[in-house]
Amino acid sequence: MRRSESGVAQTLLAMGLLTICVLGACQRKVDGPIATMGITAPTPTPAAAVTITAANFSFTPNALTVSVGTPVVFVIGGGSHTVQIESTGGACQNVVTTFPYTTTFNAPGTYHFHCTFHSCGSGTCDATCTGMTGILTVQ
User: How many alpha carbons lie under 13 Å from residue 120 in its C-beta half-sphere?
Assistant: First the structure.
């Protein structure tokens, strides 16, 4: 082998080793595709709270659809009222008597709520309840 061929071979060998080293460094473990680009994922904006007002023997609104994770705030607009909400299993939650009351629904479904003073009383949270009632659909 001539000297110039030996130099070319050494250069090619060095470039090959350098390529392997660079590619090896690019194969390091990362925490997802965004991390490989040096970009951080944006923080999701929390859903805006919705308000349900109890007044004049009714809830306003009395039928509402929200996304999972949306805070729901119950307030009293006048009179003396309570709120009892159906839990995910269909049973009633405890009667709420302190307002404003904020809750978040983390599971999709249809939730019935009512005022225990002005509807079917405590312990019934389904569609058979009449009077001061409401339905919340969570999607």
Answer: 16
Would you call 59 helix, strand, or coil by DSSP? strand
Q: Model pTM?
A: 0.65
Among left, alpha and beta (phi > 0; psi -120 to 50; other), residue 121 is left
Give 36's contacts (C-beta < 8 A, 6+ positions apart).
30
Domain 50-138 has CATH 1.10.150.120: no
Residue 92 φ then ψ, to 5°: -85, 140
Count other Cβ atoms within 10 Å, centred on residue 83.
Answer: 23
pLDDT in tens, 13-37: 555 544 554 445 544 444 555 555 5
Domain segments of the chain as ranges: 3-37, 50-138
Closest to 112 in 3D by CA, of 135, 139, 81: 135
Q: Which helix (H) or strand (E) holds 64?
A: strand 63-66
Other C-beta atoms closer than 10 Å to the C-beta of 81 total 24
